[in-house]
Amino acid sequence: MSATSDAASINQPDNTNPPLTKTAFGNDFTWGVATAAYQIEGAHDVAGKGASIWDVFSARKGKVKQNHNGNLACDFFNRYPDDLELMQSMSIPNFRFSLSWSRLLPEGVGQVNQAGIDYYNRLIDHCLELGIKPWVTLYHWDLPHALEQKGGWANRDMIGWFQEYAALCAKAFGDRVKHWMVLNEPMVFTGAGYFLGVHAPGRRGFGSFVPAVHHATLCQAAGARVLKSMLPEAEVGTTFSCSHVEPLQQTEKDIKAAKRVDALLNRLFLEPVLGLGYPLDDLKFMRRIEKYMKPGDEELLKYDFDFIGIQNYTREVVKYSFWTPFMQANLVPPKKRGVPQTLMNWEVYPEGIYHLLHKYSQYKNIPKILITENGAAFADELKDGQVHDPLRVDFLQRYLQQVLRARQEGANVSGYFVWSFVDNFEWAEGYDPRFGIVHVDFETQQRTIKSSGYWYKQFLEG
Ligand code: BGC
């Protein structure tokens, strides 16, 4: 889409929509729901689990809204059989979840926690018994605290630690898990966790962020190489947070500012994998990453993934700002632009996913794209045993419409996972933003399928 000069016209809806049916996506399209270990499992200190950086961060006062934490979360660790049965009753064929590193290796490396292995074996087996395919993410932000104490992602030793962890997972679960994702959104866990300090481990500044970026990018490829060498038949991917970026106005300054934001949000972790290197021409302040590059790293950053997972929630509109250090760019919030937004203050902009799919389809060596997360948080309420969430139904339908539109125009997309199956611990925001298509009463742990869950079920049943 071409950018426009005023906020009102930026949000023009597109009316050329093909009819939204599952059949229209074709038989080879993968449908599912997504979750992450720390956000749902609970059982934070039982059955031999070691502490993760999120256990430690959320225990620090004032780090998470209302001092919420994931100690119990959705109690998925104990309730997974019922939850998987609920998932099956909703005709959901694929379940994306992550493994908790410190449940498997309490110290991050070394001693294996057999109770952790047993738990994931039971979970995976139960998925398969119910005809649900497990899609496993190795790392969704919950680094073992013991490794953070040794420098975490800012320490280059992460590569060896991560390889050991990946090898353990491949050995333990690879006979049954055929779809793997190495990292979840490296931009977010390095940016929010090591630069802004608003996520675990709460570190700030370039000294932590820049090496963390480089080591995460190296681990992305190193983890994939381990999985593929041990499981040659498996499909190995990794996931990226992506937002369609536009300049607020068609001025040279706004256009250049938008280019910088796009490089940071959408290209920094992907392009080195594809052999294009870090996008340093558009992101001059990241040139300090060269300090952490060792001979041979450029090769080590590359990997031919079987698929790339893109995760999209919103669009960013960017304005040049002289005063903003390094980026010289500001994001113009949806509220200022008078456009619809979710409870996260993220703009609802379905066309964004359409543009992203075309953008990523243009890279030569991405064989396949899956949307491994898309969804929205609204203030859902349980009333008379029901949860009506028409805004989420509308959100999902309109985003899917744009996915279909892109696919019919030749974009290389072949899967879609709703974030999220159940309401869960939304990181620094605590439990208030509800992303689930299944409502969780966090007092009673009662589950209630929302209207959006019923809609997805019907859609999947064709
Ligand atoms: C993350 C999820 C998170 C969701 C909504 C993604 O960035 O992978 O863990 O809950 O967005 O914020």
Descriptive notes:
The chain is of the alpha/beta class and 462 residues long. The protein has a single domain (18-460), classed as Glycosidases (TIM Barrel, Alpha-Beta Barrel), CATH 3.20.20. Helices cover 37% and strands 16% of the residues. It has helices spanning 7-10, 22-25, 37-40, 53-59, 76-89, 101-104, 114-129, 145-148, 158-173, 186-195, 206-230, 252-267, 297-301, 334-337, 351-361, 390-408, 451-460; strands at 30-34, 94-98, 133-139, 179-183, 235-241, 244-247, 307-312, 315-320, 329-331, 369-374, 382-383, 386-387, 413-419, 438-441, 446-449. The strands form four sheets. The protein has an eight-stranded parallel barrel with strand order 1-2-3-4-5-7-10-13, surrounded by six helices. It has a three-stranded mixed beta sheet with strand order 6-8-9. Helix 15 (351-361) runs parallel beside helix 16. Residues 36, 39, 184-185, 188, 241, 311, 373, 419, 426, 435 line the site of beta-D-glucopyranose.
